[in-house]
Amino acid sequence: MELVLALGIGVLTAAGVWLLLRPRTFQVIIGLSLLGYAVNLFIFAMGRLRAGAPPVLKGEGPADPAAYADPVPQALVLTAIVISFALTALFLVVLLTSRGITGSDHIDGREPGE
Q1: Is the confidence at residue 81, as pLDDT, over 80?
Q2: Other beta carbons within 10 Å of 12
């Protein structure tokens, strides 16, 4: 399971970096989103992969914290998802405005071959 998760994080990171190096603004935005997903998966994996662990402590005496899921990475990832969604929406509005003003979605404002 860890190998599959590591490969998934690596593929998302590689695709995100490749798209960040493209000349079109929309591809850069998608690359940033993919990098955000890779970081979210990485943070989530740092909370240890535990299948079947109860998320909430029971009220019966002292508990062993190693037997329970860690809620902090889950809260961090949820916050990061909300923030990245807002930033992606902002980037798309800026992209549409820039395209309306310049007539092109290239970063330098020129079409390829000019």
Answers
A1: yes
A2: 20
Cα gap 96→80, rounded to integer Å: 24
Length of the chain: 114
pLDDT tens sequence across 85-96: 999 899 889 888
DSSP conformation letters of the chain:
-HHHHHHHHHHHHHHHHHHHTSSBHHHHHHHHHHHHHHHHHHHHHHT---SS--SS--SSS---GGGS--HHHHHHHHHHHHHHHHHHHHHHHHHHHHHHHHS--BTTS--TT-
pLDDT of 65-76, one tens digit each? 676 667 788 888
Task: Give the C-alpha distances (Å, rounded to integers) separating 45 from 16, 23, 75.
Answer: 19, 32, 13
- Residue 58: exposure state from Cβ atoms within 10 A (0-12, 13-18, ≥19): exposed
* Cβ neighbours of residue 15 closer than 8 Å, sequence gap 6 or more: 31, 34
User: What are residue 98's phi and psi, to 5 degrees?
Assistant: -65, -40
